[in-house]
Amino acid sequence: MTTTTNIAAINIGISEGDRKDIVEGLSKLLADTYTLYLKTHYFHWNVTGPMFQTLHLMFETQYQELAIAVDDIAERIRVLGYTAPGSYSAYAELSSIAETRDVPEATDMIRLMVEANEAVVRTARQAFPAAEKAADESTVDLLTERMRTHEKTAWMLRSLLQ
């Protein structure tokens, strides 16, 4: 994790140490979100079976939302004065979501998506203490929205399995 070269020092009311701690959590969230984006897009392309139409459209909606989320998280890291991770190797090191290389059956895709969305929730929750300690309401707001979105997505996916 590297800081960006600044023309003027960042003075947003959050110390350098606190910004670094916040960025560590956000970098993990970015990696999880990007990994989930890839998994969702992969499943969108390759889903088959009786739930094809439902899942194909659901996954498309989800990966489009995730693309915006990736940008929001990366931009928050930049606002805090750090370089956002952006390589596959960095994401592999930082992410808590396992890569899926095979093409699972549709119901297994759903289960994997539930697990991955809940992993993102846990990662966002782990990032909260540093943001709260620093009174970084902007990051807290971002984390809250990510948690809300992924909790709802997991619920909706889980409902398809019942």
- Bin the strand percentage: under 5%
Sequence stretches where pLDDT stays below 50 over 5 or more residues: none
The percent range for helix content is over 70%
CATH topology description? Ferritin
Note the overall shape. elongated
**Overall pLDDT:** 95
The CATH architecture can be named as Up-down Bundle
The helix/strand order is HHHHH
What's the N-to-C terminus distance? 43 Å
* CATH level-1 class: Mainly Alpha
Number of helices: 5
Number of β-strand runs: 0
Q: What kind of sheet is the major sheet?
A: none
> What is the radius of gyration?
17 Å
What does this structure look like?
- The chain has 162 residues and is mostly helical.
- The protein has helices spanning 16-46, 52-79, 88-94, 106-133, 137-160.
- It contains 5 helices and no strands.
- The longest helix is centred in the N-terminal third of the chain and has 31 residues, at 16-46.
- It is elongated, with a radius of gyration of 17 Å.
